[in-house]
Amino acid sequence: QKEVEQDPGPLSVPEGAIVSLNCTYSNSAFQYFMWYRQYSRKGPELLMYTYSSGNKEDGRFTAQVDKSSKYISLFIRDSQPSDSATYLCAMSEGGTYKYIFGTGTRLKVLA
Amino acid sequence: GAVVSQHPSRVICKSGTSVKIECRSLDFQATTMFWYRQFPKQSLMLMATSNEGSKATYEQGVEKDKFLINHASLTLSTLTVTSAHPEDSSFYICSARDPRQDEAFFGQGTRLTVV
User: Fold this and answer.
1) Helix, strand, coil content of chain B in percent (nearest 5)
2) Is A44 exposed, middle or buried (0-12, 13-18, 19+ CB in 10 A)?
3) By three-state DSSP, how is residue B10 classified?
4) What pLDDT does residue B101 have?
5) Across chain B, what does the average pLDDT equal?
6) Least CA distance to A9: which residue of chain B?
7) Is the peptide bond before B8 cis (omega within 30 degrees of 0)?
8) Non-local CB neighbours of A19 within 8 Å, separated by 6+ positions
9) Which helix (H) or strand (E) holds A93?
10) Pairing mode, strands B10-13 and A105-110
């Protein structure tokens, strides 16, 4: 079993839809949870960063962490074609910056 | 956010040669940098942790004699792929920890093709 599991997609949605992206993990020591967006042939860029459980909202993006279920989510509201990219979840234990990544979910928002 | 620059962005080399990739933190000092490898449609896999002034720590299964890491200054880490083979062709990405922001920032990646 991988430490972090993420559905690779692709996920296709119409413009304006609400997108839900998810990851599950097995390491209960993870405390930091990140979502990255990666465009083709580019490095990942940080979208959301959450410590421990709870919700965090930033514009059209909402990140949720449920440590009891070892499950994290990223919601994108009013999705736009420019949101089309691969979304990677990443996690790390406290005090380290060794990020363990999911495989990434490829998202396509259709105009 | 902080800026991490990686060079070159793309390189093609012949099998058996060595290739050096640079990772620079442009506006902060990074005591710790990380090197990842990403194969097509797969996740980023951590290869090694690079600490300024000391030996790198390699993840299990990564050959340290093949992937030489040097972190000679607080703003520069280099990854040298020695005796490259076609199976080393991949997307290599570095990240650097910015202690001011308690966050690691990624470079834009280097696509290595070994022919």
Assistant:
1) 5, 55, 45
2) buried
3) strand
4) 76
5) 91
6) B41
7) yes
8) A11, A13, A75, A76, A79, A83, A107, A109
9) strand A85-93
10) unpaired
- The amino acid present at A45, given as its one-letter code, is E
What pLDDT sits at residue A95?
Answer: 66
Return the pLDDT at B1: 63
pLDDT digits (tens, 9 = 90+) for A9-27: 899 999 999 999 999 999 9
Instruction: List residues bridging with B25 in a β-sheet.
Output: B4
Judge: B109–A41 Cβ closer than 8 Å, yes or no. yes
Which residues fall within 8 angstroms of residue A9, CB to CB, at 6 or more apart? A105, A106, A107
Q: Return the structure tokens found at A69.
A: 């279920």
Mutation target among B28, B32, B106 for the A interface, most CBs of A within 10 A: B106
User: Average pLDDT, stretch A58-75?
Assistant: 95
**What is the number of other CB atoms lying within 10 angstroms of the CB of residue A98?**
16
